[in-house]
Amino acid sequence: MTRVTMDTSSFSSFTPREPQTDRPPREPAPPTPFISFIKPQGQLWNYNRHKTHEDQPGNIPKAFLDAMSVREKVYVEEQGVALENEFDSDDHRSCHWVIYASVLTTIIPAILDPRSGRLVRPRVTRTTSLPIGTLRLVPFPHSAHPRNGGIYLNGLLTNVGDPVRPRSSETVQALQPQEIQGGNRRNSLYIRDFPTTFHNGQEPYVKLGRLAVLKEYRNKGIAGQLVRAAVTWMQTNYTIFNPSPSVLGFDRLGMDVTGQLPKWRGLFCIHAQEEAVKVWERYGFKVDEKMGKWWEEGIPHVGMWLRVPVGKGGHTVA
């Protein structure tokens, strides 16, 4: 950069002139968006899924309400998902990320002299934080993989799915409690499932979902920031969802089950909307051909997977 100086020795005095313009002063550049993290929230049990985020009980964390404001805009208003189906039973046990943008709002406009164009009174502004994107991470265990050709409403299978897919009697017995009766996934250490291209049917995995960015902020790298934040957090906290023998009471029974308890080993899954596949591919996810395609709230979905190293170091999402 070239440094420029002015020799003022020949000036006895110097008074800068007001800019001759009919435009108000230039706005400062908005700060970089920031991300808020929300740990699993037990108080979400009294969230009323039949009402919008604006009409919820006062003990619901504001950051979660901000997440729901984005999800309502994207999924309910844009895509036609029923409001009562947007919030589900996984929300209270999930981690959530919300990304905010600083928005400059004019409270009192500037006043200019109509003859000279000089600024008489500068405008008054206020900066507010606007939630513009969100993502959630659901820990294991999960319900069974969706059926190929299945039609799901509010998480429930409404048809029989693909009658051609072969399933052993053992697999059908394992799937039935989760798919038809709601299942006991939160009380089970393992959920036996049918093997897919990237999942053996038993390995614990975490599931990303509800990725939503407001329309006017898309194609600006917002989704990538959310995905990177979730992946990096999970890599750093890779044991956080692993069950503890002491919590389960095995130590009091004198049982050594350390080698038998499920452990997260870096596997992520998403149920991606078919039109968003290329977005997720940018972050390293791959389509699971054996999972086929199914419909959630009338929208076609496919399964995608990503495996990352865990422990020190870390994985960088492109």
Automatic annotation (TrEMBL):
Instruction: Outline the segment boundaries, as ranges, of region: Disordered.
Output: 1-33
A Pfam family hit: Acetyltransf_1
In terms of CDD domains, this protein maps to: NAT_SF
Q: Which residues form the N-acetyltransferase domain?
A: 204-309
Q: Where is the composition biased (Polar residues)?
A: 1-15
Q: What is this protein called?
A: N-acetyltransferase domain-containing protein
Q: Which organism is it from?
A: Podospora pseudopauciseta
